[in-house]
Amino acid sequence: MMESQKYAIVDLETTGHSPANGDRMIQIAIVIMKDWKIERTFTKFIYPGKAIPTFIQDLTHITDEDVKDALPFEAHADYIYELLTDCVFVAHNADFDLSFLQAEFKRAGLPKWQGKKMDTVELAKILFPMSLSFKLGDLAADLNIELTNAHRADDDARATAELFKYCWKELLSLPQLTLEQMHKRSFRLKSNLSQLFFEALQIKRQHVTSNENVSYYRNLAICDGRKKYTNNAEIVSYPQTVADKTALMTKAMSNFEQRPAQFEMMDTIWEALNDKRECVIEASTGIGKTAGYLLPAILYARAVDKKIAISTYTSHLQEQLVEEELPKIEKILGTKVNIAVLKGMQHYIDVARFEQCMAYADETYDDTFTILQILVWLTKTETGVLSELNVSGGGQLFLEKIRKMPDEKPSKGFDFYEQALKNSEFADCIVTNHSMVLSDLVRQTPIFTHVDGWIIDEAHQFIQSAMQQDEVVFSYTQWKYVFGQIGTMEETALFQQFSQAAKKKQRVSMQSLQRLDTQFIRLQRTFDETIQRAVQKMQQQIKGKQASSKCTLFLEDVSIAKEPLLQVSKLTQQWLDLATEVGHAFENNIEQLDKSEHYILTEWHYWIRELKVKIAEWEEIFLSPQDDNSVWLEFDLRSVPGSLHVFKKPVNVTPIIEKVLAPLRKQASIVWTSGTLTVPGNERFVTRQLGISDSVQVIKLQAPPSYYSGAKAFIVTDMPDIQHVSRDEYIEAVAHAITRTVRMTEGRCFVLFTAQDMLRKTVELIQDSELLDDYMLFAQGVTGGSRMRILKSFQKFSHAVLFGTNSFWEGVDVPGDALASVIVVRLPFSSPEEPVFKARAKHITAQGRNSFNELSLPEAIMRFKQGFGRLIRSSQDKGAFIVLDRRISTKSYGKEFIKALPPIDVKKLQLPELLKELNNWQK
């Protein structure tokens, strides 16, 4: 019997990150654990011999007072060194704690500590790959581990010990096959986790347990996520009267408040579904829009035994529907609702492709790490949707390789996407997104032909989706990346591996390989020359113009010669034909393919497909007629051609939407709903773009005025006029107003800009001033991560500020008490230079109409309404809506913005008065 391992779980608090620069320890805690039980703990304040910086005091709540009577590290060094002997060193971010400790040992004249280390950050990332954050505090909250005082060594060390123990149990719950695959790869990790994986595997092999919820596919253990559908005998009939509705709702919610607008919404939708009509409902926050459409939709699906589809804009809204809203409806109806979530194919993992990637030995650390995360995730995920994973930047590249692609051959064996389609056949209700509905048009087998009723939520975003759906992008670096992955015979890339494997067993003639190589070199040369010519044309265009480093030009103004563009297309096509032919010869050779040949062939097909996609984009952008589209180039003068992107977007999406909806309109009713569908003075701004006939009435449902009693709007009148001061002065005034307001409302603030550049400069200025150092600042385009990730991080902190631009105003949802104020820095007009906007405005002006009144103003008012909508999500919410843009009180159109707000108190005042007002209000 092997001696069981002792672990020393360590946490340090220090005055900073670098012992070499004089940073010192201020607290140490060590928890000794054996047989997964805590044997002893050691914790001491340490005298650092210097003042503790204020931000460290804020973070740790350890003050100079706390450490003034403590002994210096040297006094404890021998004891600590002894304590760690024969232990595995464990810490949350072990590299930091161990290197700091080693430096302190050295300073105390002790030799370097020798032993193994394990890092719970590395371990948690592998075992909880769906966690949003791997900070100790966030993991503790997710796993219900007690952590009262984060950033205090004693509490942190105990929480890390609990986390370590939790990870051990998690390891033991994994299937043996998964553990074997993980152990085999674990030697490449940065800390000694292989030892832990091996121990878990030994135990697993001795106590063979069957994992009921896992199926085995080829060589992988996968969560058995097949939906168990129920046939409910009892059908609840639709509650016709107010009393019936109230009775039904009260059954599930004891504190149910009756909202007349919600009941009206239900009746309208119930009738529209039964009469196969189209209807449009603008439902302001506070009427309970989601329940307002879910209840009649599900009761209708049950009554007529047909399917209902609900389409939203973002994945986040899909998740919210399924995880939060549907359970409420199930409770009301007292029965399970059969629901299926459907996303586009490329959202799902291609399991067969993942297995092939695993069989190939040449991996980077990021690849290895991501494979370990995926092995664990496959035993847990019911959907196979890759966005559930929280991987590193390098991991993202790996995920791109294993996405499900519209392949020629359907995959054999298990397939998450096919499973999602199957689930949707048995569901009462399909939850999908706008882009999936729009792309159903081009699918070989349309999925939505059996849907009897549609609810399109966030309907105004359907226009955005149609634009994105039809957007085509050329990216110079992506082309170069594809070229680099394929490579020539001389370069160590795929083609070299391919030709070596082909020559070894004479699968392909030498002559064919050389032809392919020559063709590829010629293609790359022509591509580079064509781009070089375009770059010269671009540089001529901006000469003399006041050019910042980031530039935008319309393609028609650059006038690139057609001939070289055609030549690139022709050469690519020739190479693709040859490469496909050579691939078939490789495959159809009499000799069986071994594992590595199989992998090389799959890679070969994959990169052929990638290049096919690229050339289709090239032809769409540069060689096809551009009617009704806007095509423009974006680049950064500091890095051309590296930064070159060319975009093609439709100017008018109405025909695209009408084409998609024509067949749906024939067979089903369509209910369009959103919090913002109209603007004062331009009722049909959105519905006309959606191709909805003017004969369809827009029903506007508003929450009672009392719902908004906690909201106030303030217009700050003493901000400088951007026209009369320099940009820097304006940004300084904005930064000053933001910092003062945030300190007064104690964070929980959304700051909305219209330009990324101004946002970045303001955030930098605020960071340099250190006035908000005790707040967490999250900024779109500055903080890494997706919009959703930034938003979820923001929600976790009570002292936080979120900075976003126009795109953040739309389609983000911040629940309840997450917000205390929204600051509107500039009225959300589109930049007149924004290419799609510019093209649309040009299109309107060409018809002799006024583009400001018909496009610019209504669009800005819509966003403004959206911005306000973020603030009050329930009748208990309190929030300040603060506008820093003077134009709202000086320009004639300003009152249109104010009219778009619900009936709330709007005050115009100077900044000092605003701060006083906020201060009194907070109290």
From TrEMBL:
InterPro entries: ATP-dep_Helicase_C, DEAD/DEAH_box_helicase_dom, DinG, DinG/Rad3-like, DnaQ, Helic_SF1/SF2_ATP-bd_DinG/Rad3, Helicase_ATP-bd, P-loop_NTPase. It comes from the Bacteria. GO terms for molecular function: DNA helicase activity; hydrolase activity. CDD domains: DEDDh. A motif (DEAH box) lies at residues 457-460. Keywords: ATP-binding, Exonuclease, Helicase, Hydrolase, Nuclease, Nucleotide-binding. ATP binds at A283, S284, T285, G286, I287, G288, K289, T290. Transmembrane segments: none annotated. It catalyses: ATP + H2O = ADP + phosphate + H(+). Residues 248-535, 270-496 form the Helicase ATP-binding domain. It is an enzyme of class 3 (hydrolase). Its EC number is 3.1.-.-. Its cofactor is [4Fe-4S] cluster. It holds the Pfam family Helicase_C_2. 3'-5' exonuclease. NCBIfam families: dinG_rel, dnaq, PRK08074.1. PANTHER family: DNA REPAIR DEAD HELICASE RAD3/XP-D SUBFAMILY MEMBER (PTHR11472), REGULATOR OF TELOMERE ELONGATION HELICASE 1 (PTHR11472:SF34). Belongs to the helicase family. DinG subfamily. Type 2 sub-subfamily. This is 3'-5' exonuclease DinG. It comes from Lysinibacillus xylanilyticus.
